[in-house]
Amino acid sequence: MSDQRIATAPGAAPAGQLPVSPNNPCPFLRALVANGYVGGHVVPLSRLSEMIGLASGETGSEQKEVRRKAWMVAVIANGLGPLRVFKSATSGAVLDELRNGPLDKHGGGSRILDAEANVHEGQIERLASFGKDCKDPAGGIEIGLTAKEIEAFMADNIKRDGDAARWYFPILMKGEWPVLLKILGKGEGEARYLSVAEVRTLFVERRLPERITARLPKPAAGR
Ligand code: HEM
Description:
This protein is mainly alpha-helical. The chain is built from 10 helices and 7 strands. The protein has 2 domains: 21-104; 110-218. The strands form 3 sheets. It has a 3-stranded antiparallel sheet. Bound molecules: protoporphyrin IX containing FE.
């Protein structure tokens, strides 16, 4: 499997995008920062959870639940000490200091992004190898991963990590790929799948599909 890097200048932002720190390892948050939905440094948890809630497409009490869960994750993202948690709760999460924080699995994830935020195409191919042909409700067939295949992918990530994998990694992972499937997925029920093409765009171009950004306020509306 080739593992050449395809994005070698993580600090450089394509036209119209803001630079994102390599110390932000979350593909979803990287896209929010790059496109100006949230700032790249200290982001109030209210703002962060609002953006995630809106991106989810849920409404009413279900959206409230998404926001609550996002808040709970973000409040411990920079450290578990009581002072740090208090600081996160009152001033915000520090998105360019997530690396080496409690949520960083140090290679226990997909390894699509390395520690310098380079994208590894071979690892996207590996993700695709867990997928299958899926029927796009908008027409056509594409490679995607349903919940079942995402489970298998995550289990293999843990296996690959060997002794370095901590007992709580599977818990952290539940807030990553399955949430991405929930937000970005196409189709309904068991057939709902995560498009590998859209995952590639998310990691490489730090861009969310238009049907998702349509749910978000225009970035210029203040972040
Ligand atoms: C509450 C705010 C969030 C924080 C603080 C956060 C933080 C992180 C961190 C630190 C990682 C790196 C984990 C690692 O590679 O070891 C990560 C990975 C990831 N995040 Fe987030 N995240 C948040 C919200 C989200 C949301 C809402 C989504 C989905 C829509 C998401 C999708 C992902 C995915 C798919 C990965 C796995 C990347 C991989 O395995 O290569 N995150 N996140």
